[in-house]
Write a structure and sequence with these properties.
Elements lengths: L2 H28 L8 E5 L1 E17 L2 E5 L4 E6 L6 E2 L4 E5 L2 H36 L5 H34 L1 E3 L4 E6 L6 E2 L7 E6 L4 E9 L11 E6 L7 E15 L2 E11 L10 E18 L1 H4 L4 H13 L25 H5 L1 E7 L5 E11 L3 E6 L7 E6 L9
Antiparallel strand pairs: 1-19, 2-11, 2-15, 3-10, 4-6, 4-9, 5-8, 6-7, 8-10, 11-14, 12-13, 12-15, 13-14, 15-18, 16-17, 17-18
Helix pairs in contact: 2-3
Length: about 400
Amino acid sequence: MNISTKKRVALGISLVALSVGGVLFVQASQEPKVPESKYRTATVDVGGITQTVTATGTINPVALINVGSQMSGTVAEINADFNDHVKKGQVLLKLEPTIFNAGVRKAQAGLASAEASLRLAQATYERNERLVAQNYMSALLLDQARRELDVSRANFALAKAELAHAQADLDNSVIRAPIDGVVIKRTIDLGQTVAAAFATPNLFQIAKDLTKMQIDTNVSEADVGALKNEQAARFVVDAYPDREFDATMRQFRLAATVAQNVVTYNVVLDVENRDELLKPGMTAQVRLVVGNRPHVLRIPTAALRFRLPDEEVEAAARQNKDAGGKPAATAASVPPPAADDDVAFRSKSETTRSFKIYKLDAENRPVPVDIKIGLSNFRYTEVLSGALKQGDKVVIRAVAPSAPSLM
């Protein structure tokens, strides 16, 4: 093929390309242009939704025992300190025993005296009984001897009780651990005086087992209807911001707390703390899982909060009227109530679970759609019914108009 032939072939190909490009340009110019959307949208999709109840609580030991003293005295010995692991019956503290030992010795002396008096009264009664039987003594003297014997027996019993009381005071001057646990608080020092005359002083605070903790939370009355025992929960604490811990709801307590007209209920959750990372008194941010749907039609929760401005609604109505059309509606629109319909007696599901949202049509215009919702969280909401399908674009907010250029 010579050079002139090659030029003619190249020229023909160029002409064909220009012709095709011209045809495509004319077709594109004749197609109607869809106006640019003025709204930020999200796509309706299918996925999972987890509904939670949030609350703030305090981490506490399951059993927290305040150890006090029934006796007054001066602290002579301290055998436990903060964070010490103690066993049941272990000596924690001793009071100065001098006064208590003296009380025991006094009671022992009183018991010995009462016992001697009892032996004498018993012997006197037995002797008088024999004399009366032989008519050497009157029955009146026997009755008096019997009375002396009864008094001596009562005094002996009283002396035994006083000895037991003195011994108990001595035993109570030694403070022992009531349970196995960890000392998390000590409020007494060596040489300090313990005064138990009016109220029992708290000397130690012992947690039973720090490997098992509980969270005491306050849940709003609006959320308690979804709570059940054994529900799963997760929480975080400030000490470990990058880690979540598991918990299980154990108890919903019926006693309500009212603060500034806000009603809350105490909900207790069980926590495994095998590593003892969680400490008593920490603040926990808790999320209780009250519902989980793995495969549902869902929309962003922000779509429920979007509302068209009044001027746009009026403009759309006027445009529809001028065009001779009917007001925009969808198949999911709720029919108007009957004349005898009283909204106050509708069910809660009809009045609180129905929402109006907006989706974009083919020309990027917002079209109202009435839907009924199911589970909801801060991110997604389940769609139970309504003219929505997967892939539709719903409006979540209006796009702010761009500022005019200064150039």
